[in-house]
Design a protein that fits this description.
112 residues; alpha+beta; four-stranded mixed beta sheet; 3 helices; 4 strands
C-alpha cells in the first residue's frame, strides 16, 4: 500500500477508505493513522521525496517531514514494537498474578 505519493506536482497521503488527499490538508488523526498503518502493515511504501516532483513549498516541507518520519519508523519498527510491549509488561504481569490468585481460591486478595 502506497501511503505517500507525488502526482501532478503535488504531494498526497493515503486516507483510510482508499482515497488520497493533498498533503497540506493532513490532520493529527491522519498522521496517527499513517504511523499505525506503517507499524501494522508489512507492505507499505512511499514515493521518494523530490523537490522537482512536488512544486508548492508547503507541500514539499510537509511531505519531506512525514516521509522522513515514516521511513524512520519502518527502520525502527521491530525496536519500537519491543519497547511498546515492554512498557505494558509490568502491568500485564501484575494482572496475570492477580488473575491467578483469584482463580486459585475464588476470593479477591490484595496483591502487592
Amino acid at each position: 500500500m502506497k501511503l505517500l505519493k507525488s502526482e501532478n506536482g503535488l504531494g498526497y497521503f493515503w486516507k483510510e477508505g482508499g482515497e488520497y488527499c493533498v498533503i497540506d490538508k493532513i490532520t493529527k488523526e491522519d498522521l496517527l493513522q499513517l504511523a499505525n498503518f506503517t507499524l501494522d502493515q508489512p507492505d507499505v511504501e512511499f514515493d521518494s521525496y523530490s523537490e522537482e516532483d512536488i512544486k508548492p513549498l508547503a507541500h514539499r516541507i510537509i511531505y519531506k517531514n512525514i516521509y522522513e518520519k515514516l521511513e524512520g519508523l519502518i527502520t525502527r519498527k521491530a525496536t519500537f514494537k519491543d519497547e511498546a510491549n515492554r512498557l505494558y509488561l509490568k502491568e500485564y504481569e501484575k494482572y496475570k498474578v492477580e488473575e491467578s490468585v483469584l482463580k486459585g481460591n475464588g476470593s479477591k486478595q490484595e496483591v502487592a
